[in-house]
Amino acid sequence: MNNNCTAPVINTDVLIVGSGIAGLMLALRLQSSDLKVVLVSKAGLFDSNSSWAQGGVAAVTGANPFDSPEIHLIDTIKAGAGLTNADAARSIIFNGHRLIAELDRLGVAFEKNPVGAYDLALEGGHKQARVVHNKDTTGRSITEALSAKLLAAAKENKNLIVLENTIAINLRTTGDVCCGAELLKDGSKIIVHSAHTVLATGGVGQVYERTTNPLVATADGIALAYRIGAILSDMEFVQFHPTALRLDHAPAFLISEAVRGAGATLLDHRGQRFVKRFHQDGELATRDIVARAIHSVMSENDLPQVDLDMRPIGAAQIERRFPHILKTCGHYGIDILTQPIPVAPAAHYMMGGIKADVAGRTSVTGLYAIGECACTGLHGANRLASNSLLEAGVMALNLGDQLLASDCKSVRSNVNQKRNEQVLLPADLPIFRAQMYRHAGLVRSQSGLNMLLKAPSKTVSESQMTTEQYSHRNIFQVGLLIAQAALLRTESRGSHLREDYADLIRTPGMVLRDVSS
Fold first, then answer.
1. pTM to 2 decimal places
2. What is the DSSP letter of 162?
3. Quick one: how many helices (H) and strands (E) in the chain?
4. Which DSSP symbol is given to 231?
């Protein structure tokens, strides 16, 4: 591995770390200017949470005459269980139409209805159909279109550099200002000096044993920002998607929220629907409520899963609207046209993260965070379905506007970087991830969280770390931050349920136990 003295140096105006919708859109927004831009992708450009998103983008486009941004805002605030930042939510939601128009312009193929308007899906927590989509592979459609545009631009524009299979291992600072990052590619270090460093690194799913997220979702951006003193917020609020495939020796494949919007039902071991016993909205309640209802039924009946029955949707509609789910479940031996899908909750989305405004500005000068690694307050204690791609895309547009309007062509160099040679890693990563799922998952308690905070660790020299260990470091650090935040919040609110404070629940209309008997 190269050391800092011999590592190559790149000077740039803007460094973007991450290649989901947020990072790709920002790079495309800036590439036509005279700014120098470097985009770093941990794996390939397609390896992101955005690519795995099935449902779509929640946005008011005018295609539904009964909808409005105000109604979308009300739904978002209700889902957030009292912690939504209403100003941030209003700003992001009221720019949804702009985002969809820009994605259209960049070649993203959204489904249209017979009269040429956007085909809109209904999802849990939404009172109106407003989710713009492309069947059940919307995220992939977005990242494929944006990546193709970006790679084409990089061939023509010497000021745009795309580095795939490259990870950011440390941010660089001079005084209280972020001025770039230290990267690792093929075992060798690269130093990037940048006037503006943007974290668009996505989520934290791999902190947990069971997750819908790809392998790259190892909480990198949040850990990087934390280590240089950036303010974090709402770290206790991790959303567990209610319906992820539950089979031995199969991944926790996401079964989109949209299937329940289309008519799929959740069944217990007796083949009976049960969610309405916990909330009047039934399968169309918000994710925290549905996940908690599933957990309660599983716990009380000692079940490893419940069933999600897509048959009420109808075979023709399933084949047209959900081909990816049909094919993937079939690969694991589940014919969703004739039988229900075994499902259980899995870690899905981080509502908290690096505290940022709607243009990505953080508490550290020169450092920005956009997308899932950021916390604007839009989601509060629980994210409304399909608001994630909305937030990431709008934040990218906002930050792009700001950088294009500012004089940001100033690269700092000769940074005296203070290094901590000794790094803390989990003693056993699989055990730590399993304990995170058990004690900092859907249900938390003081005893379990304290156990997590005492998780066994080991110390290694950073100069001897492998590429894989950098991710392990971030998983361990952010996992402990989640546990600490969860310990401090002595109430139950949104995605955060403290079983030792079950009487202090702050989710409208939710009951913790089946009240039908």
1. 0.93
2. E
3. 15, 21
4. -
